[in-house]
Design brief:
Layout: E1 2-6, E2 15-19, H1 28-39, H2 65-75, H3 77-102, H4 106-123
Antiparallel strand pairs: 1-2
């Protein structure tokens, strides 16, 4: 039987444990566990770094997706992304002006911008 006592704390905290440790893993079970752990080695490469894959999940989905993809191929990715960024910024400004005119607060404005993004994804504008 093992006894553990915790002392030296402010207020003289005294706690004892009376019992045994690890009686459930003895005999054949213990030997089998040790052998299985000791013999399982996994070789590691020098660098196992995962790189994120940037892929558009909306590619080819939505009513306007084919037009968007064809335009991107004609104009080029860099120029297309610049134009898309400007269009999104203008649309956000329109939403902001609309919210100002009806007296909507910033939280409602953000909700409208999120809704516009969801609708754009569904329609294929973000393909």
């Amino acid at each position: 039987m093992a006894t553990i006592t915790a002392t030296g704390f402010k207020g003289r905290l005294g706690s004892s444990f009376h019992g045994s440790w690890g009686t459930s893993i003895l005999g054949e079970d213990h030997t089998m566990l040790v052998n299985s752990v000791a013999t399982t080695w996994i070789p590691m490469a020098k660098s196992t770094r995962m790189t994120p894959i940037m892929k558009n999940i909306n590619e080819g989905k939505g009513l306007f997706a084919p037009i968007v993809v064809i335009t991107r191929d004609i104009v080029g990715k860099k120029r297309f992304n610049q134009l898309r960024g400007k269009a999104i910024a203008l649309h956000s400004q329109v939403i902001t002006e609309f919210c100002k005119s009806i007296g909507a607060d910033a939280k409602q404005r953000q909700a409208l911008i999120r809704l516009a993004k969801k609708n754009g994804e569904r329609l294929g504008f973000l393909a």
